[in-house]
């Protein structure tokens, strides 16, 4: 049996002397969109079963296929706590950090939006008094923000109305410190002021 391409039957027949040409710009935009979608899904891929990792100061439950280093998470928590003038206590209730899909985070945010501290979007979540953090992947700024909520909640007992402002301030301090390290220089004054 001869294989007949679908296009051969369904494509409109061009008039003699006329060529049906797909607009090149549209074609390439479609192609690029497909490639971007494929790249995006492979960068942040997730598995159905989670893996459990125990850091000194945090417990990580990860559904992501990309690796996450508990020592890096511990170090970030120590830095966030230091920025806020707190020493991390290894016997305090550890944050449980779940690395999961943006869809799941979005659904949980939508289900309990009123209960979350000031998040207009749902890139990541902190569940007050539960020491539970949800992130889609490891990122110092993203996780640092949520860890600031954890420290504000568990250690400092700061009213929730102030959490967001504090977390954004911590984000900026983390960036300053990271930049200083990259340059091989000392931390800026602002870093040690508080
Ligand atoms: Zn927040």
Task: From the structure above, extract its key features.
5 strands; 194 residues; disordered C terminus; Collagenase (Catalytic Domain); alpha/beta; binds zinc ion; globular; 5-stranded mixed β-sheet
What's the topology here?
Elements: H1 6-10, H2 24-43, E1 46-54, E2 59-64, H3 70-83, E3 96-99, H4 102-111, E4 125-127, E5 132-135, H5 140-155, H6 163-183, H7 189-193
Parallel strand pairs: 2-3, 3-5
Antiparallel strand pairs: 1-2, 4-5
Helix pairs in contact: 3-5, 5-6
Bound molecules: zinc ion.
The site of zinc ion (ZN) has 7 residues, from α5 and α6.
Explain this structure.
- There is one protein chain.
- The longest helix is centred in the C-terminal third of the chain and has 21 residues, at 163-183.
- The chain has helices at 6-10, 24-43, 70-83, 102-111, 140-155, 163-183, 189-193, and strands spanning 46-54, 59-64, 96-99, 125-127, 132-135.
- Helix 3 (70-83) packs across helix 5 (140-155) and helix 5 (140-155) crosses helix 6.
- With 194 residues, it is an alpha/beta fold.
- The chain has a single domain (46-193), classed as Collagenase (Catalytic Domain).
- Strand 1 and strand 2 form a beta hairpin.
- Bound molecules: zinc ion.
- The site of zinc ion (ZN) has 7 residues, from helix 5 and helix 6.
- Residues 117-119, 145, 149, 164, 167 line the site of zinc ion.
Rg from Cα: 24 Å
Number of helices: 7
Quaternary assembly: single chain
Reported for the largest beta sheet, the result is: 5 strands, mixed
Supply the helix-strand structural class.
alpha/beta
CATH topology: Collagenase (Catalytic Domain)
CATH architecture: 3-Layer(aba) Sandwich
- Helix fraction bin: 40-55%
Ligands bound to this protein structure: zinc ion
How many angstroms does the end-to-end distance come to? 79 Å
What string, H for helix and E for strand, traces the elements in order?
HHEEHEHEEHHH
Can you count the beta strands?
A: 5
Tell me the strand percentage band: 5-15%
Average pLDDT works out at 77
Number of domains: 1
Task: Detail the poorly predicted runs.
Answer: 1-24, 26-42, 187-194
Q: Describe the global form.
A: globular
CATH class: Alpha Beta
Task: Give me the side-by-side strand order of the main sheet.
Answer: 1-2-3-5-4
């Amino acid at each position: 049996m001869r294989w007949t391409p679908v296009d051969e039957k369904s494509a409109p027949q061009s008039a003699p002397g006329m060529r049906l040409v797909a607009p090149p710009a549209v074609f390439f935009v479609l192609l690029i969109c497909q490639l971007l979608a494929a790249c995006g899904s492979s960068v942040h891929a997730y598995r159905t079963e989670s893996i459990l990792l125990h850091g000194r100061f945090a417990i990580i439950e990860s559904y992501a296929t990309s690796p996450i280093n508990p020592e890096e998470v511990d170090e970030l928590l120590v830095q966030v706590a230091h920025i806020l003038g707190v020493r991390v206590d290894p016997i305090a209730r550890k944050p449980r950090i779940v690395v999961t899909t943006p869809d799941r985070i979005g659904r949980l945010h939508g289900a309990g939006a009123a209960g979350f501290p000031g998040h207009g979007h749902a890139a990541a979540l902190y569940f007050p008094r539960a020491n539970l953090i949800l992130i889609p992947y490891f990122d110092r700024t993203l996780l640092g923000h949520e860890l600031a909520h954890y420290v504000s909640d568990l250690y400092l007992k700061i009213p929730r109305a102030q959490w967001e402002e504090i977390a954004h301030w911590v984000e900026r301090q983390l960036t300053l410190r990271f930049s200083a390290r990259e340059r091989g220089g000392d931390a800026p004054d602002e870093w040690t002021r508080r």
